[in-house]
Amino acid sequence: xxxxxQLQGWQIDTLSRLYxxxxxxxxxxxxxxxxxxxxxxxxxxxxxxxxxxxxxxxFLASALLMGTNILNFLSSEVRSNVLLCELxxxxxxxFYCISFLLAILxxxxxxxxxxGWRERMGQGDxxxxxxxxxxxxxxxxxxxxxxxxxYVVYAVxxxxxxxxxxxxxxxxxxxxSGSLLPPAEYCTSCLLFLHIRDDNCSDVDAAHxxxxxxxxxxxxxxxxxxxxxxxxxxxxxxxxxxxxxxFPVEGDSLSSRRLKGALSSVRYIILIIxxxxxxxxxxxxxxxxxxVTQEQLFPLYVIQALLVSLHGFLNSIVYAxxxxxxxxxxxxxxxxxxxxxxxxxxxxxxx
Length: 351
Known about the structure:
It is found in: Membrane. With 351 residues, the chain is an all-alpha fold. It has one domain: Rhodopsin 7-helix transmembrane proteins (Rhopdopsin 7-helix transmembrane proteins), CATH 1.20.1070.10.
C-alpha cells in the first residue's frame, strides 16, 4: 500500500515511457520546419525569421525534456546526480517560455502585416512600416535573451542551495518527526512537475522552486491572454472584410478558399497552447492543495505528459505544414510566401 500518497514506481515508469514517443513527434515536426525553412529560405523570404526561431525553440525544448526523461532509464549512479535533473527540466521550460514569447510576437506581427500593411498601403507610411519591422527584430532578440538571463541566474545560484540526496538504494524510513521519507528511486526520478510539492526529497530551496513556477505561470498566462486577444481581433478583422468589395471572396473562388483558410488557421493557433498546457496549469494549481495526493493526480499527470510533449508537433503543423502557401514554397510550387495575396496566411512581411 502506498502510504505516502506519492507516485509509485510503475506510475513513474509509465509516465517516462509516455513522454518518449510523444516527444519524438515534436522533435521530427519542429526539426522539419527548421530544415525546410533554411533550405527554402529564398522562397520563404522573411518568413524564415519567425518560423526558424519558433521551430528551433520547440526542438530544443523537446530534446531537453526527452533527455531528462531518458535519465530515468539509466543506471542509479547517473540518476543520483540530481543536478542534471534540476538544471535540465528548468532549461527545457525556458525554451518553452521562449516559444510562448515567439508565439506572441508572431501574433502581433501577423496582425500588423495583415491590417497595417493592407489597410495603410498607399498612405505614404512605408518608412514607418520599415521602422516597425526593425523593432520586431529587437523584440525577437528579447524573447530569447530575457528567459536565458533568468535561467543563468537560476543555474548560478542553485548550486549553493542544494543538499545531499537520500542515499541510492535506501528504502522508505522515518525521520525524527515520525513522517515517512520516500525511497531514493522516487527522489532521483526526473519527470516534469514530479517534485512540485514538499515531498522530503533533496531539492533546491523554496525560492528556486517558486521562481520556476512563477516563470511558467507568467509566460503561460501572458501567451494565453495576448494570443487570444490578438487572434480574436484578427479573426474579427477577417470576418469584417469577408464581404468587402476589395476582397472578391464570393462563391468557391481561390480568394474565398484563401480567406477561409486564414480564418481556420487563426482558430487552430488560438487553441494550441490552451490544449497543450491547460493540464499542466491545472496540475500546478492543484499541487498547492495538500489534501490531494500525487497518486490521485496520476490521470492528470498522464494527460499533461501527452499534451505538453505534443506542443512542438502541433506548432509545426499549424504554423507551417498545414498552410498551403508554406507547402507550396517548400515544394517549389506556385508563388513564394511574399506574393501579393491579400490574406493573413500568405505573409507576415510587407512588400
